[in-house]
C-alpha cells in the first residue's frame, strides 16, 4: 500500500463565502467550479475554485464543526504563495479588488520579486515572480550578507 500524498489543496474558511468567491475571481482570476449551499440557512458549505492550475476549496464558518475564519480566531499564521508571471500587475489587480498591501513589491535576494497582501477575509497571499535563478548556496550567502551574519 502506497502512502504517497497525491495533492495538497487549501481549504479556506471565511465569514462570507459568497463575497469571498467573488473577490478571489476579481483579485486572482479564480474560476468557481461548483458550490453546495446549506438548505437551512443559505451558507456555502463547500465550494471549489480553480486558481491557475490549482484547486482551492472554500466554505462559510461552521463553528459547530470547528470551521472558523481568521476573523473569528484573530488571524491566520498561514500565507499562500502564488507564483505569477507579473507580480506588479497581479498586485494592482488584488488591491483593486479589495486586498490590503502588507509588503510592497520588491526584488529579493533569492531571485524572486515578491509582494504580500491580506484579503478582506483575513487570509494572506504572497505574490511572487521568478526574476533570477539562484543556487541554494548563493541564496545562503546573500541571506548571510543581508542579515549581517
Automatic annotation (TrEMBL):
Pfam families noted in UniProt = Glyoxalase (PF00903)
InterPro entries under this entry?
A: Glyas_Bleomycin-R_OHBP_Dase, Glyas_Fos-R_dOase_dom, VOC_core
Highest taxon of source = Bacteria
Q: Where's the VOC domain?
A: 4-130
Q: Which residues form a coiled coil?
A: none
Q: Name the chain's protein.
A: Uncharacterized conserved protein PhnB, glyoxalase superfamily
Amino acid at each position: 500500500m502506497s502512502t504517497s500524498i497525491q495533492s495538497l489543496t487549501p481549504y479556506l474558511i471565511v465569514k462570507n463565502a459568497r463575497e469571498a468567491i467573488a473577490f478571489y475571481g476579481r483579485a486572482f482570476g479564480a474560476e468557481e467550479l461548483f458550490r453546495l449551499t446549506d438548505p437551512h440557512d443559505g451558507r456555502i458549505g463547500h465550494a471549489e475554485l480553480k486558481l491557475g492550475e490549482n484547486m482551492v476549496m472554500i466554505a462559510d464558518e461552521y463553528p459547530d464543526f470547528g470551521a472558523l475564519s481568521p476573523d473569528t480566531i484573530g488571524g491566520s499564521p498561514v500565507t499562500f504563495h502564488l507564483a505569477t508571471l507579473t507580480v506588479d500587475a497581479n498586485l494592482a489587480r488584488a488591491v483593486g479588488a479589495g486586498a490590503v498591501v502588507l509588503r510592497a513589491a520588491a526584488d529579493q535576494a533569492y531571485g524572486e520579486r515578491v509582494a504580500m497582501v491580506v484579503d478582506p477575509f483575513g487570509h494572506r497571499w504572497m505574490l511572487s515572480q521568478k526574476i533570477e535563478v539562484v543556487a541554494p548556496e548563493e541564496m545562503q550567502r546573500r541571506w548571510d550578507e543581508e542579515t549581517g551574519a
